[in-house]
Amino acid sequence: MDDRAIDVEGLRRSYGSLEAVRGVSLHVGRGELFALLGTNGAGKTTTIEMLEGLQPPDAGRVRIFGMDPIADRAAVRTRTGMMLQSGGFTGALTARETIEIWRSLTARPRSADEALELVDLRGREQVAVEQLSGGERRRLELALAVLGQPELLFLDEPTSGMDPASRRRTWEVIRQLLGAGATVLLTTHYLEEAEALADRVAIMHEGSIILTGTPHEVVARSPARITFRAPAGESELPELPAATISIGGGRVTIESRELQADLTRLLTWAERNSVELVGLAARPASLEDVFLEQAGRR
Amino acid sequence: MSRAAATPQVPGTATQLLALLRMELVALSRNKTATAMAVVTPLAIGFILAGDYEGGAGPGVERMASVLCLVVVLGVHHHLVTVYASRRQELVLKRLRAGVPSDTTILVGAATATLAIFVAQAVILIGYGVVVLGLPVPENPAVVLAGLILGAAVMAAFSAALSAVTRSSEAAMLTSLPTSALFLATPGALVPLGALPGGVEDVARFLPLGPFAEVIREGWLGEGAVELIASLGILAAWLVLAWLLARAVFRWEPRPS
């Protein structure tokens, strides 16, 4: 009936005088991975918790598969999986006991073995949850979130506190679920994670989404960079009408909106003037550049 | 169960409650201090106090009802305030709400282990009364059991409500003090029947542990069918009231710091 998994319009939420979320609208299609990026305090967790139905919005509308996650909680929950930002375990229970108990609280659960295998905790299954490392605990939370093979997965900073190997493992699990047709909404402050996984990203800052699109579109809004060591002597740099040139710390940085044309001019100039461009590098903007630029602008 | 029938892949409420019971029992069994406090201490106090009466079956059963009031206040009311507060602080309640269980299932589930332990303690103490102290075998054990469960449920619901103003399990020592004192000040609980001036007693015996103690006494001795029904009715009314209060004020997450 609806090809949107998540449909959000004008979401607002305040805590006392703090406006945590100031009018967020977003739409996530089925099978998409949507990443909500932002620094701490940007309003990501408040937003995701309103989508999950764990917090009521002060204003605005949330629809998950066309349903209200608070009013239609029972129906929504059988189709969603959630990884909260932290906690929620009874520390004295072992990893396996935790999964076994959650199997009785989950629709269409995987077997405990499969769940432990999936997040690579088979060797640690008899360890009390309070003895697990932070990264292992996050993986256990991931196992609970995907236990029921959900159609829609909410992941609040899924890889925070994980070592690189755990992070890769988590990405693999997320890709597997996407491959099986699941929709994923995740928050992260790792830009690398959003670039690696997301179909679309939204950058949140001070409670609002300030930029949204595919990672490629978002990155294309920011200039590419050409850098090289400042040449010795007083040789003047070439005219680059579409670029901003800055020199600092012995390096020249050219911010270019037309990377290929500017690079050609630069290389032609260097060739004619027999200038060696030491340490020459040219790359498109990364999400990190966009993020810093957007955050710095406000 | 109608919802479970409509979506057969979702575990039924009974399955969910059993899972939550298991969670609480395993957690309790791994914590020696908590086990001692919740399981052993109420029994020890019960054994010490139950034999302290003069006279026959009447005073003996009255004494035992009073002991069970003390056990239900310490073992259920006070203990569950700590359970609800700590499950909230550990974000276990929030985690459960992110899943399939309903709010009612989560609230009841968190209390199941404590309620089961209380009923077991009561059965042991009543058995001790019959076998060791020579009290009569309960005339109407089903009524006694109903009273025990109903009374414990009232205490549990008040614990849930009280946990809303209890920041941590440590704070429960303080917050449950006035409520525990009030419950125990009921005639027939720690205050002997007839000890308060008539007018005060007439009102005070409607406090939850008044009908609780009465159901135990009357069910045990097989007395007063009318009073018995009235007592069960008052207990049920307290349960509804306490439950509505709990649902209105309960906090699922720690306050934002």
Q: What secondary-structure arrangement, pairings included, does this model have?
A:
The complex is a heterodimer of chains A (298) and B (257).
Chain A: E1 4-15, E2 18-29, E3 33-37, H1 44-52, E4 59-64, H2 73-77, E5 80-83, H3 95-103, H4 112-118, H5 134-145, E6 152-156, H6 164-179, E7 183-188, H7 191-197, E8 200-205, E9 208-213, H8 215-220, E10 224-229, E11 243-248, E12 251-256, H9 259-273, E13 281-283, H10 287-297
Parallel strand pairs in A: 3-7, 3-8, 5-6, 6-7
Antiparallel strand pairs in A: 1-2, 1-4, 8-9, 10-12, 10-13, 11-12
Chain B: H1 2-6, H2 13-29, H3 32-50, H4 57-89, H5 92-97, H6 103-131, H7 141-162, H8 172-184, H9 198-204, H10 209-221, H11 225-249
Provide an overview of this structure.
- The complex is a heterodimer of chains A (298) and B (257).
- Chain A has helices at 44-52, 73-77, 95-103, 112-118, 134-145, 164-179, 191-197, 215-220, 259-273, 287-297, and strands at 4-15, 18-29, 33-37, 59-64, 80-83, 152-156, 183-188, 200-205, 208-213, 224-229, 243-248, 251-256, 281-283.
- Chain A is α/β, with parallel strands linked by helices and 298 residues long.
- Chain A has two domains: 4-219, Rossmann fold, CATH 3.40.50.300; 224-297, Alpha-Beta Plaits (2-Layer Sandwich), CATH 3.30.70.
- In chain A, strand 11 and strand 12 form a beta hairpin.
- The two termini of chain A are 40 Å apart.
- The radius of gyration of chain B is 19 Å and the shape is globular.
- Chain B has one domain (13-249).
- Residues 1-6 of chain B have low confidence and may be disordered.
- Chain B is an all-alpha fold.
- The interface between A and B is medium-sized, with 26 and 29 residues.
